[in-house]
Amino acid sequence: MPVTTREVHLTARPRGEPTPQDFALVERALPELGEEQMLVRNLAVSVDPYMRGKMNGKRTYTDPYELDEPMDGGAIGVVQESRSGDFPEGTTVLHAAGWREHAVLDAARVRPVNVPESLSPTAYLGVLGMPGLTAYVGLLDKARMQRGDTVFVSGAAGAVGGIVGQLARIKGAARVVGSAGSAEKVAYLVDELGFDAAFNYKDGPVAEQLAGVAPDGVDVYFDNVGGEHLEAAIGAASDFARFALCGAVSSYNATEPQPGPRNMFLIVTKRLSLQGFIVGDSDRSSDFYREMVPLVAEGRLKFAETTVDGLDNAVEAFISMLRGGNIGKMVVRTGT
Amino acid sequence: MPVTTREVHLTARPRGEPTPQDFALVERALPELGEEQMLVRNLAVSVDPYMRGKMNGKRTYTDPYELDEPMDGGAIGVVQESRSGDFPEGTTVLHAAGWREHAVLDAARVRPVNVPESLSPTAYLGVLGMPGLTAYVGLLDKARMQRGDTVFVSGAAGAVGGIVGQLARIKGAARVVGSAGSAEKVAYLVDELGFDAAFNYKDGPVAEQLAGVAPDGVDVYFDNVGGEHLEAAIGAASDFARFALCGAVSSYNATEPQPGPRNMFLIVTKRLSLQGFIVGDSDRSSDFYREMVPLVAEGRLKFAETTVDGLDNAVEAFISMLRGGNIGKMVVRTGT
Fold first, then answer.
1. Which PANTHER family match (chains A, B) (predicted)?
2. Residue A229 belongs to what domain range?
3. Co-location of A118 and A134 in the same domain
4. Nearest CA to B12 among B66, B51, B61?
């Protein structure tokens, strides 16, 4: 058993965009295994947009990251040593202990996963993990998507958005449109993921571009971006449209309050429903796995990963992801 | 039977606050009664905030007012002549033909009302009419108020708001707070309607005043006002709070788009639900009457009316109502 491991600590609370100076890679001694504990060697660590919020010092729906402590978050690894009968050595496990190469974990905080042969374990950080469940719950439960709906998703080339669009198609949406931040991503959405249309939000006003791809209105909007996108979606919404508000990545690095939609009264006249949600509240995991594992394993629901190698590069991966440097799930590979 | 009647026409589309020059009082010949028609002598005509939207030329959830035509809207009257067996002379009726002293109406467009002895017929324009149903549907169905909730209503001294607050109390709210635009209205809310606390939004920032009266957070917000009130309510909301968005009177006379809430991301982190609604979509009338008529007739649910006499003064009444010149329902008395 190794005696030390490396972890990424938050050392300063970022103002605006995080910089490498806000973090430190720290070598730390591993504790002895207690009863019902195990040593997990991480294969990959997840970096996700929500983590930006936890870097601020304020509690929201979850506690903020502590300074000079490892940051938690999704990770997948292999049991290397075990004092739990339920987790023999070699078991692939998912856990939330985040940004480190090894972790000593209680059995109660670890979930074994049975990775289908056709898939990489990292799928459980993305399409079959928290981002996938977020897409599933937001689209089906919060936006209550119905067959025949026109569905718009922002941040559509991200870990969540690409799944939203494909799930919408599988569930019978009449039209699926998305926005993303580069021509390459737009092509990926249309050519690879089967979106009916997509646009690069940097090419012009979102409202105009959205009207172009959804001229008959939007019944469901899945919001990962906030800001101008949300205002445009309110403007484009059909009567009784339903919005699942999942994130607002456009504002995560903002240092001042961002302007809100100037067309809020349309929520009344169009009878819109806006529902904010956090995937952690959901109890739909078993439905999700039952539906999604076959779809993904058989290739009927595609996903992409942008992989960065080494915990040394986790901070760069995180900063890049907030800038939109990823297609699909951003994953940091930490071992084999 | 009179041969002419007087009507208020919209003659110009207001920009900003309406002025008397946007309207005309017009004398017009009454048509002969056809089969299943009746002549109604109006007792009172309703002026309501939503009418401002219909004065703009654009269709929203309803058609705009036509220029040089009488404006429709709620009215209560008495059948003066009838060619419908279902509506004998003397029947009190509710209809939507609005701003006029008499109207010739098809029986299909008229509803008879059985006014309890303790009430004035004008109650059917307010607490037992569209505004009352709006309060009922918004609070119970859209905001899904539960026993024990803290409920905040803006525009609380208006036709809808005062009913929202009292219904919330009757349905077991733990705390009921409201905002209004004068010290007199604030006193009315607390002393007459039994609100736990209220504030004058002109006295200081809404967010600060709301935090003062609802220090433990808001579970239900019934929005009649929009703008700064909506932002403050998002800020004060408890996790999983539910907002019924009914109106935005703060912006009805605006000539430029109004700034939206700068804290929209709290909708995600607090998992808020914002539901816009229009009372006309509701099918809850029979539940509403069954519950509300006894409450009102027995005086357990109070209501106020601000009455203006004469159709000549209807325009002034409407303009005054948009400025907050009313306590409770603004009613224009047009006959006896």
1. PROSTAGLANDIN REDUCTASE, PROSTAGLANDIN REDUCTASE 1
2. 130-280
3. no
4. B66
